[in-house]
Amino acid sequence: MESKDSVDSIADRIRDVPDFPKKGILFKDITPVLSDIDTLRASVKEMAAPFMDLEIDVVVGIESRGFIFGAPIADVLNCSFVPVRKPGKLPWKTESVSYELEYGTDALEIHEDAITEGQNVLIVDDLLATGGTAEATCKLVSKLGGNIKGLSLLIELEGLNGRKRLNQYNVHSLVQY
Ligand code: AMP
């Protein structure tokens, strides 16, 4: 069971920054969550909790704030951690998927040997907005034969309907706006 008190204390530390990185965007700044060790620990614990009994083999963290939560969640779930990164950042052979942005396209990459066929995967990021980033990550994991057991996000912007694009998956978020 989620602890309402700990989720409330996490929500209290998420800071709204208007017009960042550009006009019209209300940026959800998680650095105050990170700067308090009790809130950081609670975030990791609550994000991992729904997946404790799902025999997760690999946590995939999405660059860059997904790394911050993903690695300690892998520790809690006693499994490995794999980064998904922007193009050109990973040193070894990669699989790549491109996805649509509001203007233009972007891409994400994963090491081709990062996941083996049939491994149980949990995908982690800080925030779900339109779901484009998460959907591209699901495609990467599927390309490598990973079995997506769920996605865990600290924040979900419900108005942007990201969850709709991910409706075949078990999506869990802690704080919704
Ligand atoms: P999307 O692909 O639209 O779901 O966007 C999710 C990615 O963009 C995540 O990696 C977030 O870190 C980042 N992001 C999108 N919107 C915001 C926002 N309002 N505040 C903070 N990060 C955001």
Q: What is the mean predicted local confidence, pLDDT?
A: 97
* Low-pLDDT sequence parts: none
Biggest pleated sheet = 5 strands, parallel
| Percentage of β-strand residues | 25-35%
Tell me the domain tally.
1
Q: How many helices?
A: 6
User: Structural class, from secondary structure content?
Assistant: alpha/beta
The main sheet orders its strands as 4-3-7-8-9
Distance between the termini: 21 Å
Rounded to an integer in angstroms, the radius of gyration calculated over CA atoms is 16 Å
Can you name the CATH architecture?
Answer: 3-Layer(aba) Sandwich
Ions, cofactors and other ligands present here are:
adenosine monophosphate
Order of H and E elements: HEEHHEHEEEEHEHE
| CATH fold call | Rossmann fold
Per-chain topology:
Elements (H helix, E strand, L loop, with lengths): L3 H9 L2 E4 L7 E4 L1 H4 L2 H12 L9 E5 L2 H13 L2 E5 L9 E7 L4 E7 L8 E9 L3 H12 L3 E10 L5 H4 L5 E6 L1
Parallel strand pairs: 3-4, 3-7, 7-8, 8-9
Antiparallel strand pairs: 1-2, 5-6
Helix pairs in contact: 1-3, 3-4
This protein binds adenosine monophosphate.
